[in-house]
Specification:
By secondary structure, the protein is an alpha+beta fold. The chain is built from five helices and seven strands, in the order αβαααββββββα. It has one domain (about 25-180): Alpha-D-Glucose-1,6-Bisphosphate, Chain A, domain 4, CATH 3.30.530.20. The protein has helices at about 1-25, 40-50, 55, 60, 160-180; strands at about 30-35, 70, 80-85, 95-100, 105-115, 120-130, 135-145.
């Protein structure tokens, strides 16, 4: 009985220690990636502001071609919602809504994940003219891990993981636009 009590006390102390450490671990993260596309800024922005086009270049959208997609509103305008539902646990279920557009410059989106976990994040895409036929595209993602799950950020680099996925998407975007 004494050994069982010691084991339970040890487990309780370990859990308490993890919860205390999680209090001091950051909850928010930002991931960004950028690429130069050899196309004029207005052409690039016109393509990226249409969320349905992400099906062609986003790594996440391409992970399950069998995802059930639903759209609400007019693509390329504030309030447009793209919703997905997938049996693939890496894709899950959620929706993305256009929240703000600065025409020719920036699009801001809100992502609402429902499965496999609930979370709300923001994303944005910014275009900047480098030359008449060169456009820098920056894709960013702001997220948070709630307490006590934020402790996982000590063993997995969310910023790097998401930045790598954004880079894949931007590389796909570059390939698509430069072939047009």
């Amino acid at each position: 009985m004494k050994i069982l009590k010691k084991i339970l006390l040890g487990i309780a102390i370990l859990i308490a220690l993890v919860l205390i450490v999680a209090l001091f671990v950051g909850k928010e993260y930002t991931a960004e990636s950028e690429i130069i596309v050899n196309k004029p800024k207005h052409e690039v922005f016109e393509y990226i502001k249409h969320i349905k086009n992400q099906n062609e270049y986003s790594k996440w959208n391409k992970m399950d071609p069998n995802s059930k997609m639903e759209y609400t509103g007019t693509d390329g305008t504030i309030g447009f919602i793209s919703a997905w539902d997938s049996e693939n646990k890496n894709v899950g279920k959620g929706e993305q809504e256009i929240k703000k557009i600065v025409e020719g410059e920036r699009i801001d989106m809100e992502l609402r994940f429902k499965k496999p976990f609930e979370s709300t994040c923001t994303a944005y895409m910014i275009t900047d003219s480098i030359a008449p036929t060169e456009t820098k595209v920056k894709w960013g993602f702001n997220g948070a891990m709630s307490y006590p799950f934020n402790i996982l950020s000590l063993c997995m680099d969310m910023k790097k993981m998401i930045s790598d996925d954004l880079t894949v998407g931007l590389t796909n975007l570059k390939g698509i636009l430069e072939k047009q």
